[in-house]
Every structure is written in structure tokens, then in C-alpha cells.
Q: What sequence folds into this?
């Protein structure tokens, strides 16, 4: 695989040729095309339908939902389930934790990757090759879960919000991506800024950061999705402090808990509990929480489209 | 490095001498920094109630974990909460002094004037650290006055002495260096050469990398001790290779390992055996002529890759639970009389897990092949058309050979990662009915060590994790060697 392949993502459009080929298509071609289209349309439906099914179940009449009567389209549309979730306090906390860790964690990771990626392109740096290798080699080994956990505990990062953030700041893979990208930027700009007397921080902030926006956007989006989706770190590190659980882990607890709804929702005032009990049951509750957890991903997904293909290709030609 | 003006008065011989003393000073400062992360060298360990695994750093950053150990003693009135605060403040100040020493150590990389300032800061830091440590004595005497000495166990351990010795040596080295260095001339400024500046800018990230990727390796020592949480490691509970032998000699754990390895290898094996699917998916997708349809399919089939396994499980719950879509449809069609909860069944787990993995990942893994296909030289296809090759011939003779390098690399990487299935997927789908056939190595290590709420067998879990890490890295090296041998290209 070479760098050229990144640029040639669009096949040249050859309308005339396609028409010509189509006119002398054989029977085998037609049969293949039929099954090919059928397969992909079916697979797409299989990918999409669960999301649609989950959604229509959260907005349909709850009695119909609990007896499994909502199959293809919503009946008795209402949004009480979503409103009721507003009264679940631990869910609000979990949402806050998830949003905070996604924003802070991603921002710090992106800045650190950009900065370190920039520094390791500086030939002048004392011990440059050693530093770069020291960081990159950590991609290939792993002490294992238990030593990692004991280490986190030794560093005081268990039951501590920063336990989500600090370990993710240095990300070797992203550093490689940024470094490769910065190396492709013409050095003239930087040199002329250096002659004008700009320091390293100024050059980084005013020149490197704006120029490497595409790659930073790519790693930011992947980082944000990773932060939003992770739940095992919540389960392993924060076991002593439920107020630090992420939304994903809360959802997992709701999905697997066998206790009844009232105990689970832990919502405080008796009035609100009555409201919840009247509109929701365990099944709709679980599905609504899942939908809420899903929405941010579906919201950023259209933006990711532009970046993910680029991301995976640069990943493949890492150097 | 001395400044340009002063270099005239310093001979080469003298310079070498200065360098040696400078290295000693820096080495000593680094030693002090490292010992703040080693529980055995924690000078602030003044009571048996402090967690034996907390280093000075832990005590300085986390007041809550310090208080945790004393909660019972404070409630019973054995220890005054002011004493705990005293211990905390003392360790915090000590740690800040160490931070000053490290900052000074960084400044010694500068030119003469900055270097001298750095050394002065180191000396001041050493003094401050020694004073901060002396602040532990009021707390120690308060603990000695406790009504329950057996529980509180006041102590001043040998680590206090060692730490003090480090600090004194460091301060003395500082004085020696100051004496040896020439006085800066009036023209000198606080400056540093660019190469050291860049180095220091990267240093914080190197330290972070060390803390979270290298330091955990030090935790492998738990494999050689009879460790229980709360109690520390000491030579009393050193057991050598006991847990390694236990793993293979104990019938129950041997059976566990065989079962877990079977699951791991089977599920990874199914994945490897079907690793041609993304390639086939990509080839067939590019055979669809309508660009719009192709793009839409690509968009839709990659969505599942971006949701977490918890969300996959909640979709599975919506579709396959007793009141879910599949049961309702089957009953409506008369194919089923009573609803079954498919998620609770324990049959065909390997296959089901593979299906979920494929549902989630197929569209995404195909993208790399789609990009590779668009990188194949179009002239090859045109030449083949001229020669009268049909569509399937072109796929067979041009597309597939063009994709093979990518395929080999991914195949080798997946073979190297055969033991690392991750635990997320298997953890969320695990339940009483399927737990025997779903436990993969990663999940097993978690459940063994941490899954049972503080009563897990940490040494044994560490042993299993260790063996896994060693085998994985060996496999990766072998795969890399194989790739070099076969294609002359390294994959890592």
C-alpha cells in the first residue's frame, strides 16, 4: 500500500464504458448482480433495523411495547419515557460524567498528540529517536489487566475522575499519525517563522496546529467515540464510587439488573416515582436509556463520514 | 554547559570533572523522584493503618484513600483526624519539595546562569523535603499516644532514613557542583540550548508514558507473592513460582485454563478462518455500479462499528428477549408456541459471538479493502478488457492479487492477536447459562482477579496475564519475522 492510494478514492466516472459493458452483459453477470444487490440491501437492513426497532419501541404506547406488539411502526406515539428519564438522578450524573470525560479526555489527547507529534519531528531534539521509540514501542506490549489496575490504584487514580483522563493523554498510535502528517507539511513555513524569531510554542500554536486540522479532526472523532463507548474502565476503576459511573456502565447495570424498576431508578421523591411507575416498565426503561446513550453517536456519525476513511488509510500506511 | 564567556576560564579537565559531578547530582534527583513511586520506600509510612501499597505519591495526591484506612480508628477515637491531616500535609509538602528538586534538575540542562539557579533550587528542595518529613514526628508522637497501639501500630520505618539519606546526598552534591561551577559573567542570561529545551518539552509526556505503560510491568512482581489487598508485599509472603506451579498442577485451575483456552482459540480461530469476508465484501460492493447506492450501503454497514458492546447488547435485548421482535414474529407466524429468551440460551455461543462480531465489524473492516481497490492501477483493468477478460476474470486476476498484501498483513496481525479477544463483548453477553463457553482469556483474568469484589486471586490472575503478554509478544515477533522473510516487509 502506498500513499498514492489515499488520493485516488474516487473511481474515474466512465459512463460511456459502463453503458457499453452493460449492453453485452451475459446471463452470469445478470444473476450475479441480482444476488449481489439482494445481499447488500438485506445486510444493510439487518444493520439498520435494530436501531429503528429500538427507537419505535421507546416512543410507542408502553402497554403495547411490553406485550411485544410494536413490530414495524410506532403506535400511540408519546415522549413520556424520555421525560421520565429526566427524573432519574443517577442517570443525570452518569451523563455528566460521560460528557465530561469525552470532552476533556479527547481535548487533552488531541493536544498532547499534536504537540508530541510536532516535537518528535524536530531533528535538533536531544534524544529524539530514543523518545520516539520509547513512546511508540508501548503499542506492542501490555503488562496485563491486574498489574495495570494495581498501578492505577497506586497512582491514586481509582475512584477518581482523572482515572478516565490521564492514562489516555499519551496515545502512541495517534502520535504516529500526527507525526507522519506533520512531516508532509512543507518545512519552509516553519523555517521562515523561526527566522522571524518565533518560539516553539508559537510555531506549534500558530502554524502546526492550524495546518494539521484534518488529521487532528480524525483522531479527535475516534478518540471521542472511544471515550464515550468505554465502560470496562468505569467498572474496574470506579467500583467504589457509583457517582463516577459512565452512562454506558449505567446502561449495562440497568440491562442486567433483576431488581424492580422503583428500586433501580433511585429517584428520590415519591411523586416522581409514581409518575415513572405509571408510564414506564422495565423493558421500555431499558430501551429508552439505550436510545439516550445511542443518540450522541448517531449525531456525530454524519461528521465522521468525512474522516473515517482517511483515518483508517493513514493508519494503514503508518511509518 | 557553561556560557561562552566563562568557557575561557574553565579548562577541559575541569569541564570533565564538572560533568561527572553534574551527572551524579541529576542521577540522585531522579532516584529521589522514582522512590516517591515505590511503596517500599515510602517515608511517610508512620502507621500500620496506611495501605501498604501506597507510595509517597499516592499519599500526596489522594487524601481520601489515606483517610479510608483510618476511618475505623477515627470513629473509635484511637486516632485524631487532625493527625491524619498532619500526615497528609507532611507528605504533600514532601512531594512538592521533590517536584522542586525535579524542576531544578531540569534547569541544570540550561546554560551557566540557569544551571546555577537549578542547583540552588535542588538544594532548597532537599532542605524543604527534610523539614517536611520532620513534620511527621508530631503525627508519630500523637499516634504513639493512641489508646489502641496494636491497631494503630505507630512506626518510623527504615524507608524514612533511606529517603533522608538520599536528600542529604543530593544536597551535598548540589553544594559540590555550585563550588565547581564558575561564576556567571554579567552578560550571561537565563538561557538553554534548543536541543535541551525540546527535550524538556517532551519530558512530561515521556513520564506519562512511563507511568501508564512501563510502570505496570513492575506489578508483575505480584505473581511471586501471596498477595492479599491491603497487606503489602514483603519477604514473608514471597512464594517464588508457587502460583505458576499451581496453575498447572492444581486440577481445578488446569481444567479452567483448558476450557478458557479452548474458548479463546475457537473464537479467534473462527474469526481468522473467516477473515477473507471483509475482502469479499469490499470486492462485491465495488461491483455495484451506482455510486449513490454504494455509498449508502457503506454508511449504513459501518454504523454498528461505532457503538459500544453495551449498546450492541441492548439492541440484542430489544430484538431477542422474550418480548422482543424475533419471538413476536416467530409466534405470529406460528413457528413457535412459547417465547424463548434467546440471550439466555447457552448453545452455539461461539457461533453467536462470531455473528455479533461480524454484524458489528464487517462493514468497517471492508473499508480498508475498498480503499485498496481504488488504489489498483486502472490501466490494468483497461488492458484486461482489451484482452477480452470478463468481470470475474478481472476480479480473479487483478483485484484479488492486488488486495493480497493487505490481506496478509491483517491476517498475520490477527494471528499475533489470537489470545487477545478483549473482554467487552463477552462480558456483556455473559450469563449463567453460557458462562462456560463464553469465557475468553481476557475475561477470565478479570473475573479471577477483580470480578468477585476484592476477594479475587490477584497473584494467579497476574500469572495468567503475564503468560498471555509474553506469548502475545512472541507471536507478534514471529509474525513480523515471517512477514520479513516472506515479503521483505515489516508489519509493526
A:
Amino acid at each position: 500500500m502506498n500513499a498514492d492510494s489515499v488520493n485516488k478514492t474516487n473511481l474515474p466516472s466512465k459512463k460511456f464504458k459502463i453503458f457499453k459493458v452493460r449492453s453485452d452483459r451475459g446471463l452470469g453477470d445478470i444473476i450475479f448482480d441480482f444476488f449481489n444487490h439482494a445481499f447488500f440491501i438485506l445486510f444493510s437492513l439487518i444493520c439498520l433495523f435494530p436501531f429503528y426497532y429500538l427507537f419505535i419501541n421507546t416512543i410507542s404506547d408502553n402497554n403495547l411495547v411490553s406485550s411485544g406488539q410494536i413490530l414495524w411502526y410506532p403506535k400511540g406515539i408519546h415522549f413520556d419515557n424520555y421525560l421520565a428519564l429526566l427524573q432519574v438522578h443517577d442517570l443525570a450524573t452518569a451523563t455528566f460524567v460521560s460528557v465530561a470525560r469525552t470532552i476533556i479526555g479527547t481535548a487533552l489527547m488531541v493536544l498532547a498528540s499534536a504537540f508530541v507529534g510536532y516535537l518528535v519531528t524536530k531533528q535538533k531534539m536531544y534524544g529524539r529517536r530514543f523518545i520516539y521509540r520509547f513512546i511508540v514501542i508501548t503499542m506492542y506490549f501490555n503488562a496485563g489487566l491486574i498489574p495495570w489496575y494495581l498501578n492505577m490504584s497506586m497512582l491514586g487514580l481509582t475512584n477518581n475522575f482523572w482515572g478516565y483522563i490521564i492514562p489516555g493523554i499519551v496515545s502512541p498510535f495517534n502520535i504516529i499519525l500526527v507525526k507522519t502528517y506533520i512531516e508532509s507539511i512543507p518545512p519552509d513555513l516553519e523555517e521562515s517563522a523561526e527566522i522571524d524569531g518565533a518560539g516553539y510554542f508559537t510555531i506549534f500554536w500558530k502554524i502546526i496546529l492550524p495546518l494539521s486540522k484534518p488529521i487532528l479532526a480524525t483522531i479527535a472523532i475516534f478518540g471521542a467515540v472511544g471515550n464515550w463507548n468505554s465502560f470496562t474502565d468505569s467498572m474496574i476503576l470506579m467500583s467504589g464510587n457509583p457517582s463516577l459511573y459512565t452512562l454506558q456502565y449505567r446502561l449495562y447495570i440497568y440491562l442486567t439488573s433483576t431488581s424492580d424498576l422503583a428500586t433501580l431508578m433511585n429517584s428520590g421523591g415519591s411523586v416522581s416515582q409514581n409518575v415513572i411507575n405509571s408510564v414506564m416498565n422495565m423493558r421500555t426503561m431499558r430501551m429508552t436509556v439505550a436510545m439516550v446513550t445511542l443518540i450522541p453517536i448517531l449525531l456525530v456519525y454524519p461528521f465522521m463520514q468525512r474522516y473515517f476513511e482517511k483515518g483508517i488509510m493513514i493508519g494503514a500506511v503508518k511509518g | 554547559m557553561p556560557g561562552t564567556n566563562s568557557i575561557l576560564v574553565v579548562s577541559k579537565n575541569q569541564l570533565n570533572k564538572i560533568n561527572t559531578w553534574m551527572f551524579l547530582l541529576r542521577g540522585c534527583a531522579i532516584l529521589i523522584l522514582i522512590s516517591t513511586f515505590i511503596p517500599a520506600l515510602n517515608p511517610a509510612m508512620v502507621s500500620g493503618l496506611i495501605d501498604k501499597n501506597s507510595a509517597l505519591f499516592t499519599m500526596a495526591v489522594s487524601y481520601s484513600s489515606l483517610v479510608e484506612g483510618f476511618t475505623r480508628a477515627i470513629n473509635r477515637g484511637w486516632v485524631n483526624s487532625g493527625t491524619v491531616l498532619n500526615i497528609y500535609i507532611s507528605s504533600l509538602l514532601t512531594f512538592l519539595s521533590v517536584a522542586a528538586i525535579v524542576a531544578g534538575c531540569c534547569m541544570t540542562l540550561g546554560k551557566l546562569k540557569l544551571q546555577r539557579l537549578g542547583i540552588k533550587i535542588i538544594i532548597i528542595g532537599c532542605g524543604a523535603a527534610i523539614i517536611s518529613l520532620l513534620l511527621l514526628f508530631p503525627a508519630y508522637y500523637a499516634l504513639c499516644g493512641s489508646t489502641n497501639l496494636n491497631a494503630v501500630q505507630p512506626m518510623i520505618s527504615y524507608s524514612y532514613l533511606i529517603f533522608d539519606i538520599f536528600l542529604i546526598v543530593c544536597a551535598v552534591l548540589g553544594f559540590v557542583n555550585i563550588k565547581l561551577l564558575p561564576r556567571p559573567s554579567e552578560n550571561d542570561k537565563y538561557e538553554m540550548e534548543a536541543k535541551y529545551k525540546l527535550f524538556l518539552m517532551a519530558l512530561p509526556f515521556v513520564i506519562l508514558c512511563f507511568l501508564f505503560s512501563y510502570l505496570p510491568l513492575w506489578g508483575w512482581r505480584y505473581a511471586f507473592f501471596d498477595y492479599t489487598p491491603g497487606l503489602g508485599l514483603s519477604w514473608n509472603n514471597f512464594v517464588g513460582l508457587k502460583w505458576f506451579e499451581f496453575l498447572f498442577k492444581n486440577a481445578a485451575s488446569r481444567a479452567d485454563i483448558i476450557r478458557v483456552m479452548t474458548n479463546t482459540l475457537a473464537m479467534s480461530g473462527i474469526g481468522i478462518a473467516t477473515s477473507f469476508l471483509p475482502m469479499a465484501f469490499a470486492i462485491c460492493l465495488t461491483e455495484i455500479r451506482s455510486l449513490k447506492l454504494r455509498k449508502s450501503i457503506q454508511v449504513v454497514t459501518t454504523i454498528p462499528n461505532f457503538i459500544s458492546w453495551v449498546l450492541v447488547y441492548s439492541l440484542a435485548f430489544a430484538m431477542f428477549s422474550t418480548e422482543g421482535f424475533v419471538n413476536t414474529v416467530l409466534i405470529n407466524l406460528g413457528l413457535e408456541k412459547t417465547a424463548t429468551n434467546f440471550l439466555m440460551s447457552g448453545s452455539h455461543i461461539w457461533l453467536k459471538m462470531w455473528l455479533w462480531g461480524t454484524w458489528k465489524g464487517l462493514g468497517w473492516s471492508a473499508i480498508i479493502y475498498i480503499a485498496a481497490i481504488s488504489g489498483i492501477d486502472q490501466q490494468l483493468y483497461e488492458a484486461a478488457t482489451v484482452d477480452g477478460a470478463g468481470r470475474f476474470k478481472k476480479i480473479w486476476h487483478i483485484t484479488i492479487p492486488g488486495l493480497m498484501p493487505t490481506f496478509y498483513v491483517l491476517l498475520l496481525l490477527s494471528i499475533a492477536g489470537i489470545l487477545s479477544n478483549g473482554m467487552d463483548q463477552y462480558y456483556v453477553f455473559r450469563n449463567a447459562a453460557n458462562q462456560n463457553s463464553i469465557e475468553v482469556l481476557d475475561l477470565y483474568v478479570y473475573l479471577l482477579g477483580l470480578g468477585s469484589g476484592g476477594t479475587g486471586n490477584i497473584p494467579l490472575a497476574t500469572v495468567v496475564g503475564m503468560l498471555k503478554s509474553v506469548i502475545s509478544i512472541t507471536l507478534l515477533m514471529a509474525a513480523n519475522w515471517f512477514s520479513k522473510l516472506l515479503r521483505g516487509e515489516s508489519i509493526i
